[in-house]
Design brief:
The complex is a heterodimer.
Chain A lengths: L1 H7 L12 H30 L3 H4 L24
Chain B lengths: L12 H7 L2 H39 L1 E3 L5 E4 L3 H7 L4 H30 L6 H13 L2 H11 L6 H8 L17 H29 L3 H9 L4 H29 L3 H6 L11 H9 L3 H25 L4 H4 L1
Antiparallel strand pairs in B: 1-2
Classes of the chains: A mainly alpha, B mainly alpha.
């Protein structure tokens, strides 16, 4: 009887393991940032390839600020040496 | 019938087999049959692996001019000259530092990355693809990109560091990262880690896929914390994948030439030379010495790998 009951018993449904939403978002954000870091050098290569030929070789004056990469930088470029 | 003893020994083995008496002949044929299947692989190994080694040993014992003309035997003179080179001790120390630092950092970061990319999150596949980029790209190209980015006057990394206030002046000693031996070596180790990460991470990721989820459930029921189940379940089961990744990574980093050559050419002076780059530099004028160093390199890498495998009891699982 017991054996019959066991065979008839429905297999217990495994609840899908889900991480809490915030944690998933954090993991995804970390993974995307790392993915971007891995791609950045190659993006830089493509950007350099698309620039006019003179520009990449153009020297930045010793005391002048070069072309900007980060926005709103007000940092002084005067030499600290 | 021809006796087994008076058969033509100069004939190929299959002809000899035909000449043998019926019973013995069949047995001998059966025994020699695998040779026919092994022969192509054996010939390939002979031509691709053994012959270059023999040629290398031969070259290391010859007196060869910088123009490539052999002017007789040098015996062990090339080895003696090599071991008396004042630059060699520094280069050997730097090579060990280069290999240990690059491999250790790669494996540590890979463990974390494999753990992260093994989690379920939306867009996981795309993120994993991005990780392959340095693996898919040529190492020479990646090293060249980093050299561009480290240009002292307008390199992207220098510009970023300048914006962050770390680099104060362009075209200065401070911004010339590849001009100073210590910082150049550090950046090159960074690039070596960057190009090695995809392979090691994917190897560990494959190891992660092979760990049954039930083990974690059992550990959880037993009251294990996440850190404890990582130490007691994940790490031991990742061991085979970890060992493979480390061994292949050691060989790759030890033999790595394009990163160093593209970023510093081994300079300033010999300050960023490893044995592989030094071997290439020697080749310009001292071919015999370069061949001698390549043999030393070969022995060194064999010893390092065997030592590592021995320390990690490579055959532990098989012994049980």
């Amino acid at each position: 009887m017991a054996a019959e009951t066991l065979t008839r018993a429905r297999p217990a449904r495994r609840a899908p393991r889900r991480l809490p939403a915030v944690k998933t978002a954090l993991i995804a954000a970390a993974a995307y940032i790392i993915a971007i870091i891995f791609l950045l050098p190659y993006v830089e290569m493509v950007i350099t390839a698309l620039r006019p030929q003179r520009e990449p070789a153009k020297k930045t004056a010793r005391s002048a600020s070069p072309r900007r990469r980060l926005p709103n930088s007000t940092r002084s470029t005067v030499s600290a040496r | 019938m021809q006796s087994a003893y008076n058969r033509n020994l100069a004939a190929p083995f299959w002809v000899q087999c035909k000449q043998l008496p019926a019973g013995r002949g069949r047995r001998a044929r059966r025994r020699l049959a695998p040779l026919a299947w092994l022969a192509p692989a054996g010939a390939l190994i002979g031509v691709v692996v053994l012959w270059p080694i023999v040629a290398l040993i031969q070259t290391s014992m010859q007196n060869i001019t910088p123009f490539g003309i052999t002017i007789g035997s040098a015996g062990t003179k090339n080895f003696t000259k090599l071991f008396h080179d004042p630059n060699l001790p520094g280069i050997l120390v730097r090579t060990v530092l280069w290999v240990v630092a690059a491999v250790a950092l790669t494996m540590l970061i890979s463990l974390a990355l494999a753990q992260l990319f093994n989690q379920r999150f939306p867009g996981r596949r795309v993120a994993r693809w991005a990780l392959i980029a340095p693996w898919a790209a040529s190492v020479m190209m990646t090293a060249l990109i980093f050299r561009w980015m480290l240009q002292p006057d307008n390199g992207a990394i220098n510009i970023l560091l300048h914006q962050l206030g770390i680099v104060h002046q362009f075209d200065s000693n401070q911004s010339s990262w590849l001009g100073r031996p210590d910082s150049a070596l550090a950046w090159m180790i960074g690039v070596a880690v960057f190009v090695s990460l995809p392979f090691t991470t994917y190897t560990l990721l494959a190891g992660h896929q092979g760990i049954p989820g039930e083990l974690y459930e059992a550990a959880k029921i037993d009251g294990a914390t996440r850190w404890r189940s990582y130490r007691k379940v994940t790490l031991p089961l990742l061991r085979p994948a970890f060992l493979v990744a480390v061994v292949i990574n050691i060989m790759n980093v030890f033999n790595s030439f394009p990163i160093i050559w593209e970023m510093t050419r081994g300079g300033p002076g010999y300050a960023t030379n490893t044995t592989t780059v030094f071997m290439y530099n020697l080749k310009e004028s001292y071919i015999g010495e370069a061949a001698a160093l390549s043999i030393v390199n070969f022995i060194l890498i064999l010893v390092i790998v065997l030592l590592y495998l021995r320390l990690n009891n490579w055959n532990r699982a098989e012994d049980r």
